Amino acid sequence: MNKRTSTGALLGAIVLATTATLTPAAAAGNLIKNGTFSDPNAPAGGYVQYDDGENIGAWQVGSSTPGGGVTLYSRALTQYTYQAVDIGAGTLSQDFEADQGTIVGVTWKHARNTDPACAKDMGDQSYSAQVIPPAGSDPIGDSFTPNGPRFASANGIQFFAGHDHFNLEFAGRAPDGCGPLITDVVVKVIGHVQ
After folding, report:
1. Model-level pTM?
2. CB contact at 8 A, 9 and 159
3. At 101, phi and psi to the nearest 5?
4. What helix, strand, coil percent values describe the chain, rounded to 5?
């Protein structure tokens, strides 16, 4: 899968947004399902591993390295309000739809891995997040690295919806797991171009 960032598409979205009238979007729900990874529940104080080809609710699990996957952490392990996913050696993706001509914002929270079993062998905590439009268009995204063990908002992604169908993908870089944690993923329409 193409992992490059498209500055041209982003620049086009910025130019379009600054030359057109931007109106606020009506309050709309999250375009992503299960953004807090609450379904299914991980065992209290534990975790569940998911391999390439499995699903966490509407999220599809893939592998960024041979034998990779992701791990769903319970709220007790994340030490946070929500369950979270360690995207260590895997990818996590979900399709979503947005109306053409809208400005879409993608937000989430991330943290360095909090699993005590990972303390000695902490994997690479960087990862990529990208929105992938239909074939023929460049992905929009970037690399991210959480600063500490407490969940904080990532910089996120904003884009102009020139299509109506997209895929959001997070890809870890820790070859043996113990990667960063992500949760509270929200995709919302934040404006309209008129």
Report:
1. 0.84
2. yes
3. 90, 5
4. 10, 40, 50
